Amino acid sequence: MTTQQQEQEKRYDPQRDSTLRFVTRQDDITLDDDPNTLRAEMSCGHAVTPQSLTAWCRSLLDQGQHRFYCPALKEGTTQKCEAEWTYQEVRKLALLNTQEQQYFEETLAALAAAEYCEFKSCPGCSTCVEREDLCNLCVHCTICTAETGRVYEFCWQCLSQWKGPGPRSDRCDNDGCTNKELELLRKCPTTALPQVPGVTECPSIRACPTCGLLLEHDRTGCKNLLCSRCQKEFCFVCLKLTPVCLQTSTHYVPCSDGIAPRQTAIPSWNRHSI
User: Fold this and answer.
1) Can you give the residue ranges of the RING-type domain (predicted)?
2) Sheet strands (E) in the chain
């Protein structure tokens, strides 16, 4: 049986799980209102089917997000619910099968590791090494040091054996060592945001002002983006966090401070301050 067939077979059984609250009103994710379809309420009160919940949460994983949140609108408003669901709740109400659980859990682990830690393969031994100081390019490998009997350090940026001052530095002396992300910010083409009048020459790639993740606007919708890593929303045009930008503007109106220039530095994410 294919994955698609398995998803089509998913059905809630009130007799097997009395801990869920079942309803027949419309699905708050897909808006399907078939009265013959049984739906369950999430912890936030919005109704889903196993299929709609699985598809929505899988799409979040595919976008690089490891937090599951409700996309439904609050009743009588245009504001999204955005209540966060635990994986345990999603697994239960989505009726995830063994194959789906494996995919969800492996992807969640990889995304969480990418968010909370910085890992790269040591060029000497290929072991994954964590960089604890996000401002330091000189990284010490304990395995290579133990095996060779001398201190082994490499550059986090160019992944070559370290040359230059250490043990803490924001630059190395290897030929051609450049920050590829900064180069991308410097050389990316400009773009227009058709939905925002007057925004015709905006850099097409921006670093999130909170965590530094590089993001590209798809040129549809408003000028604000939600960062998939730190979950902070910011204005792609002026680079202010959305609540600050909206104090003097709206989602589809040019920013009062105009278009922020190209970024020349990538913010370091202090995770403990969020």
Assistant:
1) 23-259
2) 22-23, 39-41, 47-48, 68-69, 84-85, 119-121, 128-130, 138-140, 153-155, 190-191, 202-203, 205-207, 214-216, 224-226, 233-235
Q: Return the closest-CA partner of residue 191 out of 259, 254, 248.
A: 259
Task: Encode the chain (274 residues) as per-residue pLDDT tens digits.
Answer: 444 444 457 889 888 877 889 998 999 999 999 988 999 999 999 999 999 999 999 999 988 888 899 999 988 888 889 999 999 899 999 999 999 999 998 888 777 766 655 677 899 998 888 887 777 889 999 999 999 999 999 998 889 999 988 788 888 899 888 888 888 999 999 999 998 999 999 999 999 998 888 999 988 888 998 887 777 889 999 999 999 999 988 999 999 999 999 998 888 765 544 4
Q: Are 261 and 159 part of one and the same domain?
A: no
Domain boundary among 178, 199, 228: 178
Domain carrying residue 170: 117-178
Site of tokens 């403990």 = 272
**Cα–Cα distance, 142 to 75 (Å, whole number):** 56
Give the containing element (helix H, strand E) for 60. helix 50-62
Specify whether 191 is located in the same domain as 247: yes
**b/e for 46-68, b at 16 or more Cβ within 10 A?**
bbbbbbbbbebbbebbeeebbeb
For residue 274, tell me if it sits in a domain: no
